[in-house]
Design goal:
The chain has one domain. The protein has 14 helices and no strands. It starts with a helix and ends with a helix. Helix 9 packs antiparallel against helix 14. Helix content is about 75%, strand content about 0%.
């Protein structure tokens, strides 16, 4: 794989992993559109997991203090208001402290559906899902419509401190559908959060925090496989550069999106997903006729 391809794909990953438009779907379409088919489907997926590891580094670094505070609170340490920015100076009530102590365990519960789905559907993710362009297009459009519906019916009044176990399970089940390219992990989890009445900021923060264990697990599994099989010849430099670029772009994207959604809706992403879905359908028809 040429270095410039690794950089382009890493930029796409860093942007689309956190913006709710589907990084896996965009990576697949970009490769098809540009004719980048040097790698086998299995090696493409491995490289994509490496790019996900880069975005894992970005989310870990951006939320480094939050993660320390979440873990400390969960194991009985000092509790501070880490989850919201608007009233960080106000002291927490006893009830709020109990709620913040539970956040780590709620995220652990939310990770279970995605982990189970990832294990059961690993072969489909590597083969069937990645080869069906119409499936990607349909997922882009369907999730956009659900996102629009969530914006309409959600009360948008639940901060991160009030998330319940039920909320976490619903968001976790939504995350499991992100194995289908085009769904978008952040898109599905943010949308589920809106249906559970999260504020947009809470939905985004919970989505980003929730990505950490799932991406870490997938990356560790692939790292174990690579240790046994090794990388294809000439792939060491593209892997390293891909990880670094996706981490840098991912960090900038997280910072921008959190600020953006404090004062804006998801409308621009809904419109983009629908437009992209129809463009992908048109491309699929053209590719099928060739």
């Amino acid at each position: 794989m040429p270095i410039y391809q690794a950089i382009v794909l890493a930029i796409i990953q860093g942007l689309a992993e956190f913006i709710p438009v589907s990084s896996s779907g965009h990576l697949i379409i970009a490769r098809r559109l540009l004719g980048w088919n040097e790698l086998s489907p299995a090696h493409e997926l491995t490289f994509d997991v490496a790019l996900h590891f880069g975005t894992l580094l970005s989310v870990l670094f951006y939320f480094r203090r939050t993660w320390i505070q979440i873990v400390r609170a969960a194991f009985g340490g000092k509790v501070v208001r880490f989850s919201e920015t608007s009233d960080s100076e106000r002291d927490l009530t006893a009830a709020e402290q109990r709620e913040e102590r539970m956040l780590l365990w709620f995220m652990a519960a939310a990770t279970i559906p995605g982990a189970i789905a990832g294990k059961l559907l690993e072969s489909s993710a590597e083969d069937y899902f990645r080869e069906h362009i119409f499936l990607i297009a349909g997922a882009l459009i369907v999730v956009a419509l659900l996102m629009w519906w969530g914006e309409r019916v959600g009360k948008l009044d639940k901060p991160l401190t009030r998330i319940t176990l039920g909320d976490s399970i619903v968001v976790g089940c939504a995350q499991a559908f992100a194995l289908i390219p085009g769904v978008s992990r952040s898109g599905s989890t943010i949308t589920a959060g809106l249906f559970r009445n999260f504020t947009r900021e809470a939905a985004v923060r919970f989505s980003f925090l929730l990505s950490t264990p799932l991406i870490a697990g997938a990356a560790l599994l692939k790292a174990y496989e690579l240790r046994k099989q090794g990388l294809p010849e000439g792939m060491h430099a593209p892997f390293i550069i891909g990880v670094l670029v996706s981490a840098i772009v991912g960090y900038a994207t997280i910072a921008w999106l959190i600020r953006y959604l404090q004062a804006n809706t998801l409308k621009v992403f809904i419109i983009y997903r629908i437009a992209a879905g129809f463009v992908v359908i048109a491309l699929a028809v053209v590719w099928h006729l060739q």
